[in-house]
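>> received
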Amino acid sequence: MEEPKDFLSLIRIVPDPRILGMVTYPLGEILLVALVGTLCRMEDWDEIVYFAEEQLEWLRRFLPFKDGIASAKTFRTVFRALEHKVFSEAFSAWVADWGGRRHRHRRPCAAPRTARRARRGMFSMPLPMRAAWFWARNRLTERATRSRRF
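>> returned
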């Protein structure tokens, strides 16, 4: 059985919407900070940036962050310009990869509908991971919707 892919290798399929010569902060760094901040229940881009600045040494274990953390305005601009369908598919594939491979045990379910869902992979994930995934997906979708209104 192969190990699940890491977030950054799977998210590389998301195209960077910015002009290549004018990019200071790589897309992988921005997406990693957004994921970690969202999972740690930061409410908006300003909170995510503040949180990332406080956790910069820990984040550097995964990526270099040679220019530090992007501003909240940069996060808004990048997420407004991202192809949301491609990002959503990549993120969902990453979560499904973790859920479908890591936790193969199945628990008996009382309701037939729940038993059918449990076979799909997502529902074989532990409850805290499912809750974090749903919460993160809803927050990112909510932000994308809000940012497109203005």
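>> Helices lie at 7-11, 27-39, 45-54, 56-59, 72-81, 84-102, 112-118, 127-149.
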